[in-house]
Amino acid sequence: MDKFGRRIVCLLSCIPAAISWVLLIFASSLNSIYAARVVAGIAAGLTTVGLVYISELTHPQVRPMLLCLNSVFVSLGILITCCLAVMLDWRKMTIVFLALECCIFLTLYFVPESPYWLVCFQNGMFNEKRICKMKHSLRRLNRRQAVSTIYSDFAIVYSEYISELSTLLNTG
């Protein structure tokens, strides 16, 4: 997650989920259903990067509420599954969920990278190209607030990060 970025890992987590839905659509035995569920479990584990992404983007006052929405949406997904089970057989339901997964992938494609990751975890030196990427990402994420204000906040966070890192290296 720190090596590739939050956005890329979110996109990559859609791939095993889609594979699991395709495996379920064409399942011909109980073992193939088990295999599809194992792949779905791997995909579910990868989706936790979304929580990291949300925690890096949100203001501390609204962060707990947005992180709790994860549980709400899991429950909503279970409710939707139960409602669809009344109307559709399980193979048709998997087709619906595969279409939903494709929509999620397309939506995530347009989500900008986390500015925090661009500053702290991207390989290489802190150069103009990274600053431009971060400002672009900040502009897309914060259309109402001035980018210069947000950028100065990130500069403070980055300087604190560097000072903590140098303190840890000097004490270790």
Low-confidence stretches: none
Mean pLDDT rating: 79
N/C terminus separation: 25 Å
Mind telling me the C-alpha Rg?
20 Å
Largest sheet: none
SSE pattern: HHHHHHHH
User: Could you state the oligomeric state of the chains shown?
Assistant: single chain
Structural class: mainly alpha
User: Can you give the helix content as a percent range?
Assistant: over 70%
Number of helices, where a helix is a run of at least 4 consecutive DSSP H or I residues: 8
**DSSP strand (E) fraction?**
under 5%
General description of the model:
The protein is mainly alpha-helical. The protein has 2 domains: 104 residues, no CATH class; 57 residues. The chain has 8 helices and no strands. Helix 1 packs antiparallel against helix 3. It is elongated. The relative contact order is 0.11.
Name a few traits of the molecule:
172 residues; mainly alpha; 2 domains; 8 helices
In a few lines, what is going on in this structure?
The protein contains eight helices and no strands.
Give a topology summary.
Blueprint lengths: L5 H20 L4 H17 L2 H9 L5 H25 L2 H20 L5 H6 L7 H14 L5 H25 L1
